[in-house]
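Q: What residues go here?
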C-alpha cells in the first residue's frame, strides 16, 4: 500500500511558435520579424494567421494563413518599421483548420529615440500689468507629441521646479548621488511631482522608499557610501546620502535603523579624522556635522570651534552655511545668524564673479551652493536679511541658461519649495481666471492648441521660468566641448570594418577612444547607443589579453562602472591625465537582425559639468541577411 511512481509529461502547444526580432527599434528603422512554426502535435492543413501591432510600429507583408503538414515546419518574415518613440505590442493568433482552440503569442517592442531629449530654458520678468502668451510654437523643433512646456511663476526667484523635477526623473544614470538627487526633492515637492504624473501619496512614498533601498546597496560595512558600488570612501557623498536618509526618516519613510546608525557612526569617524583640514577645504567636515546636528547628535563644542576659529578656512560658502544651520539645529541661534551672514557674503561673491567651476570633491558649483544655502537658511528660520542678496545672485546665474547638474537641479527644487510659499502677494490672471503664486503648470501640444495667456495683476514684478523639452526632429550635430570621443569598428582579426555593410551574424569589436582637451578632475560617463540590428555579444570589456589582434588596447584603464544594456553600452570613470593622450575601451557586438537602422553617435559628458561634452555624428547602417 506504500509506493511511488513517476512519468514524464509533455506540456506544449500543438504548434510551437517562436519569434525572432530586434530587442528595440528607433524611429524610421526597418527590420524583420521572423516567425517559426513547428507542428509537433497539430492537424495538417491551412492555419489562419493574424498579426497585429498596437503602438508605434507598422507591420508589412503579413500573410493571412500558412500551410502546415503533419510534423511539418514553416516560417514567415514580416516587415517592422519603427514610428514615434513609445512601447508597441505585437499580438499573434494562429487558428487551426479544424476549429480547435487558437494559439496566441504577445510580445512588446520598445521604440527608443535615436537622439537624447533636448531642453530649452528661458527666464523673464513679468512687470505689473504685463501679459505673456504661450502658444504651440513653443514646441517647434520637437518630434510631434514629444514636447512638454513647464511654466513656473514666482514673486521670489525664477526657478522652474516642475521642469527640474522632470529632468531629474529622466536622467538615465544611477550612481548614489543621482539616486539621491532624484528622490530628495520628492520629499518636499509632492504637489509638483503630481504635475509630472507622479501621484503623491502611496505611489510617491513607494518611489522614495525604492530609492532608499537602492542607495543602501551602495553602503559599505563601515557605513560609507560609494558612488557606483559599496567600494569607495567619499566623506562628502556619505554625508549627502545620510542627509537624504535623515530627511526621509523625518518624513516618516522607512529607513532601516541599522543602516542609519551605521551612517551616523561613519560621519562621526570622518569628523574626528578630518577635523584638522587645511584652509580652503573642509566641505565634508561641514556637511557631516550638519547631518549630525539634524539628528541631534552633534557636539556643540565642535560647532562653536568651527564657527569661532575655523569659519574662514572652509572652502565654500555652502560649508559655512551648513555650520550655521547646524548651530541653529543645536539651539545657538545667535552664532547661527553671524555664520549665515558670512556665508551669504562668500556665496554672493562666488556667484557674482562668474567663476562657474563645476565638479570637484563635493560635486559642487556656485549655483548649487547658493540654492542649498537658500534652502538651509529658509529651513532654519534665521538670517532672513541674508537671503535677498544670495537670491539675486542665484537669479543672475540662472539667467545664463546653463544646463543644470543633478546637484543644482535637486537643490534648486528644494530652494523653490522653501522660498515660494503661498500667499506671497502676487496676483495672476490665467486665461481670465484669477490665480495665486507660486504658479506651476506643465503643458503639452494639446494644451497649447489654444494659446494660454498669463497676466500679472499684482503690483510687483513676477519671475517667469519656462522649460521646453522634447525629442529633436533632426539628429543633434557632432560637438566637442572640452572632451572628445571617437568610435571605430574592427573585425576580430584586427582589420578595420564598416558597420554600414555588416552581414547577419558578423561579430565586430567597437573601440571608443576618450580624450580631454586639458587636465581635469571630472566624473565622466561615455554612452554608445547600439543600432537596433546589433546586440552586445559578451558582457565584458575587451582587453588586449582577450584578442591578440588588439595589443594597443589599454589594459590599465579601470572604469568605476560599466553597463551592458539591450540598447547601449555605458562606462563611467574619473578623469585622469591619461585622457590627454586618449583612453581606449572596447566591447564586442554581433549583427543579429537584417534591416536598415539608425546608428546614433557616441556621447561622453562630465556628469557634474554639462558644458563639457563630446558627441559623434548620427548615421545609418544596413545589416544584410546571412550568406
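A:
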Amino acid at each position: 500500500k506504500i509506493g511511488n511512481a513517476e512519468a514524464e509529461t509533455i506540456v506544449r502547444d500543438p504548434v510551437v511558435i517562436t519569434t525572432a526580432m530586434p530587442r528595440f527599434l528607433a524611429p524610421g528603422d526597418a527590420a524583420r520579424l521572423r516567425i517559426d512554426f513547428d507542428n509537433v502535435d497539430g492537424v495538417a492543413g491551412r492555419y489562419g494567421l493574424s498579426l497585429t501591432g498596437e503602438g508605434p510600429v507598422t507591420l508589412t507583408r503579413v500573410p493571412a494563413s500558412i500551410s502546415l503538414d503533419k510534423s511539418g515546419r514553416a516560417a514567415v518574415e514580416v516587415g517592422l518599421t519603427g514610428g514615434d518613440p513609445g512601447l508597441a505590442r505585437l499580438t499573434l493568433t494562429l487558428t487551426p483548420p479544424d476549429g480547435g482552440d487558437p494559439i496566441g503569442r504577445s510580445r512588446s517592442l520598445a521604440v527608443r529615440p535615436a537622439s537624447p531629449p533636448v531642453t530649452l530654458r528661458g527666464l523673464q520678468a513679468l512687470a505689473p500689468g504685463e501679459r505673456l502668451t504661450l502658444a504651440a510654437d513653443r514646441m517647434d523643433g520637437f518630434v510631434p507629441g514629444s514636447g512638454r512646456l513647464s511654466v513656473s511663476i514666482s514673486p521670489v526667484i525664477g526657478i522652474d521646479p516642475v521642469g527640474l523635477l522632470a529632468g531629474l526623473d529622466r536622467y538615465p544614470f544611477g550612481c548614489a548621488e543621482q539616486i539621491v538627487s532624484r528622490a530628495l526633492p520628492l520629499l518636499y515637492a509632492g504637489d509638483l511631482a503630481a504635475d509630472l504624473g507622479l501621484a503623491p501619496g502611496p505611489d510617491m512614498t513607494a518611489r522614495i522608499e525604492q530609492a532608499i533601498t537602492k542607495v543602501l546597496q551602495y553602503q559599505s560595512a563601515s557605513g560609507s557610501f560609494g558612488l557606483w558600488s559599496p567600494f569607495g570612501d567619499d566623506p562628502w557623498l556619505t554625508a549627502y546620502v545620510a542627509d537624504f536618509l535623515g530627511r526621509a526618516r523625518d518624513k516618516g519613510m522607512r529607513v532601516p535603523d541599522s543602516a542609519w546608525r551605521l551612517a551616523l557612526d561613519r560621519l562621526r569617524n570622518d569628523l574626528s579624522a578630518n577635523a584638522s583640514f587645511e584652509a580652503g577645504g573642509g566641505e565634508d567636515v561641514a556637511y557631516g556635522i550638519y547631518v549630525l546636528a539634524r539628528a541631534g547628535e552633534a557636539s556643540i563644542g565642535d560647532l562653536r570651534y568651527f564657527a569661532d576659529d575655523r569659519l574662514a578656512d572652509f572652502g565654500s560658502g555652502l560649508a559655512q552655511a551648513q555650520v550655521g544651520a547646524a548651530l541653529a539645529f543645536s539651539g545657538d541661534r545667535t552664532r547661527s545668524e553671524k555664520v549665515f551672514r558670512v556665508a551669504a557674503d562668500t556665496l554672493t561673491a562666488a556667484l557674482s564673479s562668474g567663476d562657474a567651476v563645476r565638479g570637484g570633491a563635493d560635486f559642487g558649483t556656485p549655483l548649487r551652493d547658493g540654492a542649498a544655502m537658500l534652502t538651509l537658511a529658509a529651513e532654519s528660520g534665521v538670517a532672513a536679511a541674508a537671503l535677498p542678496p544670495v537670491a539675486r545672485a542665484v537669479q543672475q546665474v540662472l539667467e545664463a541658461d546653463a544646463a543644470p547638474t543633478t546637484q543644482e537641479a535637486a537643490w534648486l527644487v528644494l530652494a523653490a519649495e522653501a522660498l515660494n510659499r503661498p500667499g506671497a502677494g502676487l496676483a495672476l490672471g490665467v486665461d481670465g481666471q484669477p490665480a495665486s503664486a507660486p504658479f506651476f503648470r506643465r503643458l503639452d501640444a494639446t494644451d497649447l492648441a489654444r494659446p494660454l495667456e498669463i497676466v500679472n495683476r499684482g503690483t510687483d514684478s513676477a519671475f517667469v521660468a519656462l522649460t521646453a523639452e522634447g525629442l529633436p526632429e533632426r539628429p543633434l550635430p557632432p560637438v566637442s566641448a572640452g572632451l572628445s570621443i571617437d568610435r571605430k569598428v574592427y573585425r576580430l582579426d584586427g582589420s578595420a570594418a564598416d558597420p554600414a555593410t555588416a552581414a547577419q551574424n558578423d561579430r565586430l569589436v567597437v573601440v571608443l577612444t576618450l580624450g580631454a582637451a586639458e587636465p581635469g578632475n571630472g566624473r565622466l560617463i561615455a554612452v554608445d547607443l547600439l543600432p537596433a540590428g546589433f546586440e552586445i555579444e559578451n558582457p565584458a570589456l575587451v582587453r588586449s589579453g582577450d584578442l591578440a589582434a588588439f595589443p594597443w588596447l589599454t589594459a590599465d584603464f579601470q572604469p568605476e562602472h560599466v553597463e551592458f544594456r539591450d540598447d547601449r553600452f555605458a562606462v563611467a570613470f574619473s578623469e585622469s591625465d591619461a585622457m590627454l593622450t586618449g583612453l581606449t575601451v572596447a566591447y564586442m557586438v554581433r549583427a543579429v537582425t537584417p534591416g536598415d537602422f539608425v546608428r546614433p553617435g557616441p556621447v561622453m559628458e562630465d556628469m557634474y559639468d554639462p558644458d563639457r561634452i563630446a558627441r559623434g555624428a548620427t548615421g545609418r547602417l544596413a545589416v544584410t541577411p546571412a550568406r
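A: Context that may help when evaluating the design: The radius of gyration is 29 Å. The chain has a mean pLDDT of 89.
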